[in-house]
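Course assignment 3, question 2. Fill in each field.
Student: A.L.
Task: Predict the tertiary structure for the chain below.
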Amino acid sequence: MKKIISALIIICALFMNQNLKAQAMEKNVTIIELTQTEGQFETQNLELTAGKYKFRVVNKDVDKDLGLAIQKKEDKGKDLMKTAIPTAFTSAFVKKGKAEYSGVVELKKGKYVYFCPLNPTPYYNLTVK
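Answer field:
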């Protein structure tokens, strides 16, 4: 439990730093909405083109805080603090019935996974063409 709390604190600090950089890049950004229910995202695979995205994460009646993490597919299951895309984390934990945005995420061609480390959810495929 202490590792999870420490990781979440570090994630928040990383995001706050990246958020300032991301705000300067918000032109031509596409918003992708991801709704979470208990233990899963409703959208279970994404196929996108390379570009800049913000993810709006919605907590649909889950009684705990939620979030979002994105990793390259080859990093799936590896240390989240070392391999996750820092700007993909939401700016705050997503409370029941609320929504939060990630920072701007620039996705390049390749294979990724997205998931919630707090809920937790399975890993879902995110393919960028």
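Instructor remarks: Residues 2-128 form a domain with the Immunoglobulin-like fold (CATH 2.60.40.420). Residues 5-9, 20-25 have pLDDT under 50 and may be disordered.
Grade: pending
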